[in-house]
Design a protein that fits this description.
The chain is α+β, with helices and mostly antiparallel strands and 155 residues long. It is 23% helix and 26% strand. It has a single domain, classed as Metal Binding Protein, Guanine Nucleotide Exchange Factor, Chain A, CATH 2.170.150.20. The strands form 2 sheets. Strands 3-4-8-7-6-5 form a 6-stranded antiparallel sheet. It is globular.
């Protein structure tokens, strides 16, 4: 007999299966213990648990050199310094990512729908993409600086 509990349990199973399948779709897969061994506690909470760093806490806000921003979890180059701008939000912001560097998915937390952005190679959570960026694309990739590392361009 089908009842509300059976339907809810079935839906929960499908959601969990979908998340497991999505998590296994990444090129780099590590256990939670392996991630904890290579990331700081703060990096782990942001990259693997989708937490958010405190605004204005990232040294990358003041980074002005030419170079590339990489995923702190797997070192994939994800954003060029030329795409960075000061959004005034307290988090590093970019107008676009490097080609084939990020993935996105719908995030329905905080009573709204946002676009979550993550590393295409390891699935590490970077932040969110908003529709209030500068022209021409109008996108603001609002990222947690702790999820990134910066590599200056060779002189």
């Amino acid at each position: 007999m089908i009842n509300r509990r059976t339907i809810l349990l079935g839906m929960a199973g499908l959601i969990a299966a979908g998340r497991t399948a999505a998590a296994n779709a990444f090129e780099i897969i590590r256990t939670e213990a392996q991630w904890k061994a290579i990331l700081s506690e703060e990096q782990f909470l942001v990259l693997r648990k989708n937490e958010t760093e405190q605004p204005n806490s990232s040294p990358l806000l003041a980074e002005k050199r030419v170079g590339t921003y990489h995923c702190a979890g797997c070192d994939l180059a994800v954003y060029a310094s030329q795409a960075k701008y000061d959004s005034g939000t307290g988090w590093p912001s970019f107008t676009e990512s490097l080609p084939n560097a990020i993935g996105t998915e719908e995030d329905d937390t905080f009573f709204t729908t946002r676009t979550e952005v993550h590393c295409k190679r390891c699935g590490g959570h970077f932040g969110h993409i908003f529709e209030d960026g500068p022209p021409p694309a109008g996108k603001r990739h609002c990222l947690n600086g702790i999820a990134l590392t910066f590599k200056p361009a060779a002189a």
